[in-house]
Each structure stands twice: as C-alpha cells, then as structure tokens.
Design goal:
The chain is an alpha+beta fold and 379 residues long. The protein folds into four domains: 71 residues; 87 residues; 91 residues, Homing endonucleases (Endonuclease I-creI); 63 residues, Arc Repressor Mutant, subunit A (Orthogonal Bundle). It is built from 17 helices and 16 strands.
C-alpha cells in the first residue's frame, strides 16, 4: 500500500525551480497573463492575487513554503497530473511547522518499518497535542543514543530526510516525528489520541493480517523499548493487560514459546510477557533474516545480549565443577557486580547469584557496595 502527498494533512511545499518555470510557461501559453489565470482558477476569498503571484516566483520559493492545495488547483487547470506535481516536490512540511522533509520519498510506501515506528510510538512514545488547532505529533523518549538515532533513521527511510533545527538531534532525548508525518499514522491505523495512552493502547487488529515481517518488527520494537534480556528469556513489562495479550497473540502467530504473568513492582502493577528460551532461539533466527531484508530493524546492544545468552549454554563451563572457585579468584583480583561476573564467565546471572550466596556464607567474599543498581562484591 502507498500514500501520496495529497493524502497527508495541511501540507505546504517547495517545488523544484525547473518545474516552477514549467508552470509559468504553461500558464502564459494558455492564459497569456497571471491575472486571467487567477480569475479562472480561484475565487477572491480562496487566495489573494498577490499571494498567487508570489508563489509562482522562484525568489519566493527559495524562502517560503506554500500550500499544496493551491498548486493542485493550478496543475488541474493546466492539465498537469497530480503525480507529475508530486515528482517535482523539493521539500514539504506541516503548515506553520518548523522541521521539514527534504528530497522526499513519494509516494510513501507502507512496509514493516512503518509498522515498527507505530510500535515505538506506543512503547516509548508520547503524543503532543498542541493548542490553537495545530496537528498532534509523536515524541519518542529514548536515552540510548543508538536507539534514538535509529528511530529517526526509520522515519527517514519511509519519508525522506528530515531537516531539524541545528543540533536538535544531538541535544534532544525525545526526537519528534513532524506533525505532517505523524498524521499519516493516525489515518492509516484509524487511531485517535486516546489510543496511545499507556493503559489503553492496543495493536491494531488488521496488522495481524499483514504478514510475519510486520508482526516481528512490532515485537522487536517492544523488546527495544520495554524489554529485559536474561539468559533464559526476554521479558516485556507493561501496565496494560490487553496490550500484553496482543503481544502474546503475535508470539502465537510467530510460533514463539511464551507465557504471561502478573506482578507488583514499586511503581505499580505490571503485566509481563515472557518469551521463553525456545522462543528466543526461533525469534533470533527470524530476526537475523528480517535484519537482512531491512537492516534498520536492528536490536542493537539488546541483540548482542540475546546472542551472548546462547553462548552461556554452548560453553562446557556451565556443566562442570569449579565455577564457584572461578568466581572467588575473579573477586580476589577486583571488585565486580553479578552482571560483570556473568559476562566474563559466560554464565547465567542466576548461577552467579547462587555461588555468590554460598561464598558469602563461607566468609570467602563479602558485599563491598550495596548500591541497589549495581551491587559490588570482593574479598
């Protein structure tokens, strides 16, 4: 499926200079003057004559964007197709907006990356709803630089390069999807503002008929935004029972072993989707194939964590004696956390904790720093 520029809302555009010359030439041929053309094309209350003249000037086009609707009327009266106009758009933006799309990809094609962007906007996104009748738009809260830049690259893969304000991408931890683009997600998925509330969001039902690539792309987005990777499973925590059920339904379609549990954490009640070890292996195989087709669908460091979890079970060290002594020897050299020890020995964190507990009881090691986020052990 694809969308054209006229399917978007409140679009203002800049045209390529040679196409603007072409419009002026056609107009002169047919009407001899802009005044006659204006009277033929518009009512006085639609657009002032001065504005009509200005949007046909190259000097004006270099500085200002103009309404797509006006150019569509001009082209229709000059027997120029909408498609030809679309091919000659240099850039576009939301009326009144700042950020714009340069060298746009038109028409806009819907693919699994488009579906993945929606999932990011549900998972770690917020919907900004400005006043004064302006269009709402998405903001994506992401502290990790790789995932933050990847979000922007996905949008640009679908729409074309976005020119933000200077240094915006470097400084922000919440990149925005411009309103003119955000509006297409609302339109295509038939969603409204409330459909993005954390307790109310759902996966649109028709996505389940789109194919496994789209479903996996959505699941990967939630793993990136809300997932925790352990050596035995991937866990997605959400305060939304029905959305967790939707993700479970995706696992059913993709044939991933999973279970759903409920839990209480300091911040409230959570529902959890656990993709179990066998499901992790199939997900990893499917992900590598999808990544070849769409390199932007990338798990980043969480993918490395999943891959490393398989190495733990492939190494013989997990099935032999002596792990406890190896841990003691490591801690004899330096103070380490459970995660650091697990990474160095390619062991599960559960196994490390088991041996740490026994070593403390035997007075061979001790807790050095009990900071909740990173407990350090040593001798």
């Amino acid at each position: 499926m694809e969308f054209h520029i006229w399917d978007l809302e409140r679009v203002h555009i800049k045209l390529k200079e040679e196409f603007l010359d072409y419009l002026n030439s056609k107009m002169k041929q047919k009407f001899n003057s802009k005044g006659k053309a204006y009277k033929e094309f518009f009512q006085k209350d639609q657009i002032p004559f001065a504005t009509f003249k200005n949007i046909l000037k190259k000097s004006n086009m270099k500085i200002f964007f103009a309404s797509l609707g006006v150019y569509l009327i001009i082209c229709k009266n000059l027997n120029i197709s909408r498609e030809e106009l679309e091919r000659n758009i240099l850039s576009y933006k939301t009326a009144g907006g700042v950020n714009y799309i340069y060298n746009p990809i038109l028409p806009i094609k819907i693919n699994p990356i488009f579906d993945m962007i929606l999932a990011h906007n549900i998972g770690d996104g917020t919907v900004i709803n400005p006043k004064n009748g302006r269009l709402p738009y998405f903001g994506y809260r992401q502290l990790d630089e790789f995932y933050r830049l990847a979000y922007i690259k996905k949008i640009e893969f679908i729409f074309g390069r976005i020119l933000y304000k200077k240094d915006y991408v470097v400084k922000t931890t919440r990149p925005y999807c411009p309103p003119v683009l955000s509006s297409l997600f609302f339109k295509y998925y038939n969603l409204n503002l409330e459909d993005f509330l954390s307790y109310k969001a759902r996966i649109p039902k028709f996505i389940f008929n789109k194919g496994k690539d789209s479903l996996l792309a959505i699941l990967i987005a939630f793993i990136i935004d809300e997932g925790n990777i352990d050596s035995t499973q991937i866990t997605i925590h959400l305060r939304n029972e029905l959305l967790i059920k939707d993700l479970g339904d995706i696992c059913n379609v993709l044939d991933y072993d999973y279970r759903i549990t409920k839990g209480i954490e300091s911040s409230g009640n959570y529902d959890r989707l656990h993709i179990l070890r066998k499901g992790m292996k199939k997900l990893w195989t499917d992900y590598k194939l999808l990544n070849k087709k769409y390199p932007l669908i990338h798990l980043g460091w969480k993918g490395k964590k999943i891959e490393d979890s398989f190495k733990i079970y492939d190494r013989k060290i997990i099935r032999v004696r002596g792990n406890k002594e190896l841990i003691r020897l490591l801690l004899n050299e330096e103070q380490l956390s459970v995660n650091q020890i697990a990474e160095r020995l390619s062991m599960t964190r559960q196994g490390i904790r088991y041996h740490i507990h026994n070593l403390i009881n035997e007075n061979k090691i001790k807790l050095i720093d009990g900071n909740k986020s990173n407990w350090l052990y040593g001798v």
